[in-house]
Amino acid sequence: MMEYKGAHDQVIFQDVLDVCSTYITKPESIDLIKKAYDFIMVKHEGQKRKSGEPYTIHLIWVAYILSTLETGPITIAAGLLHDVMEDCDVSHEEMVERFGEEITTLVEGVTKINKMPFKDEADVYAENHRKIYIAMAKDIRVILIKLADRLHNMRTLEYMRPDKQQRISRETLEVYAPIAHRLGINDIRIELEDLCLYYLDPKAYKEISDLLEEKRSERRESVDKMMQSVKQLLDENHIDYRMKGRAKHIYSIYKKMVTQNKKLDQIYDLFAVRIIVDTERDCYTALGVIHEIYKPIPGRFKDYIAMPKPNNYQSLHTTLIGSEGQPFEIQIRTYEMHRTAEYGIAAHWKYKENQYGQDTSKSEEEKLSWLRRILEWQRDMSDNKEFLSLLKSDLDLFSDYVYCFTKDGDVKNLPAGSTPIDFAYAVHSAVGNRMVGARVNGNLVTIDYHIQNGDRVEIITSQNSRGPSRDWLSIVKSTQAKNKINQWFRTQFKEENILRGKELLTNYCKAQGIVLTDLVKPEYTQACMKKYGFRDWDSVLAALGHGGLKEGQVINKLQDAYRKKNPQFATDKDILEAVGKNNASSNGQTGAMAAIKSKSGIVVAGLDDVSVRFSRCCSPVPGDEIIGFVTRGRGVSIHRTDCVNVMNMNEADRQRIIEAEWQVTPDKEENELYDTELVIYAYDRIGVLLDLTRVFTESGITINNVNSRTSKQGIATITIGFAIRSVEALHVLTAKLRQVESVKDIQRTHS
Question: Is the pTM above the cut of 0.90?
């Protein structure tokens, strides 16, 4: 196992206090940190990590990392306490009593959600992240604690199973490293990225590491010679400075080699010289002096002082040709710029918690404008997975961007590949909604024009504009623009969708002979709203109107709620008695009216040890929402609630519907398999069926039957029947199948 600096070093609580004492002066602040330490030593006593070391070592490390970022005492105390509510069953009330509301809020912000009923693991993952990011948007200290927590977990990842190493590394690379980058906390970002690469692609990591070491040995002499030459120039011009060399970190090299298809020799900034000076004027003076002697490479000069990066990074970057013809990079910045580059938002943020006062300038608030967007997104979305996808996309786009200007000269930072539409929504959502055209550098351009660095963009608006087009969604690049366009459509057509939803529901009930007025009462609609995650009944109707929900789904849920309040409706007396007699004659027992688990692992309302069978039309598996249908003489047939046959039942048959639920015992959960089918739509190609069946083989799933046909348009429809343990396992399998080349869509059979 390769060693990382700091990964296996020992740290004790005194180390935390030693660092804190360099910038925290108030004794009561130090006492707060000590109080938190004493508390965790009691609450986490006896708990061990995977490595076998006491769990408190991890908490001390988190506090130590936070102290090196010079965060305030409240943040450090919360870092020590961040797992106490999750792992030690410490209540909210106890936390508030001992440490106050502020620390309790921070700890709750970091705490995972583990007791809520989600459909699958992916939903839990998405909801946990949603919770953390919303908490982060309200208080930046939440993510600082989370980053420190994740950094130490990555340093000790070797003790995890290989599959967990991969999953955690991928999550870190997709979410936490980009957030560290956006917050400007460079040291943490670099270490996280390198650690992730080590576990995700160890071969590539070793190759680059070895090559880098070789190159370093080869170029050490020439780099040292060049540094001496630059030092002489700066000394001659009486510029006070500090100089040091650095090697580019491994992941950034890997990324360039993969994305830009470059060899190591083609990457100019493998080694860079960093010059730190007192003032901004000294930065430009030093640059001018160096350019007099060394020839800069065209297109490789970047002025991030005049045009800072969105995370507030400032520096001058120039790539020069050395005396021996070798390229090298020089970075020039002030001490304040360097501090910001290393610690990011943590270097200046208001949460120094009374150490330096609570005043925050407008510019400091603007640095976190992207966090406010997170709050806007979560208000507009009920789907956790959509929210997470949006967030990942936004963070991902951050790495490459362009600078452009409004007609008044204000600077806008946009993702690379952005269009005038993105620009319009960056100015204001009202500008985007009323946009009818654009000028770039005084010339009319198409709406799909890709904005370049330095472009001056003017948006043409009209009060008569009909608003954005759905086609814009495939043109825009920024997450902000996509969200604003979707929001406009949701708002604009909500009334229309509500009316359409009412009409669809009414027509459905008429066709099925259902009295709708009996069902649309607050006590029943509330259950439906809760089930599908809507705040009000109008939102349910709007979802029906635009196709997000099906009429049968809504009616089934309303009827379920109705039956709970009116059980006589759910149990057709005559039918249940007949079934009871049938059971008595076949089993020699009386039909006792109780919720008893059948041998199938299904609980059916009102029947004792009833014969239960699974319908072939929809093939339910554990985890699916189900209902029971009382047949004549064949017991109860179990269907999924979204089964087409259930949705299209007439009123007479609906009297036979009874409640049913899964109640699988642990031994049955491990061993029982349930038949189901998937319909896979894919572009026809040689080997597609082989690739699909390979996924089943690798997942240890036996295929029962396969049926395939191909349309004239070249679309293959492949139906695969198999047995599986649960709907969660089915979700995992489906996700793997979607990764197969040419797969267009996957659906479960409904009828």
Answer: no
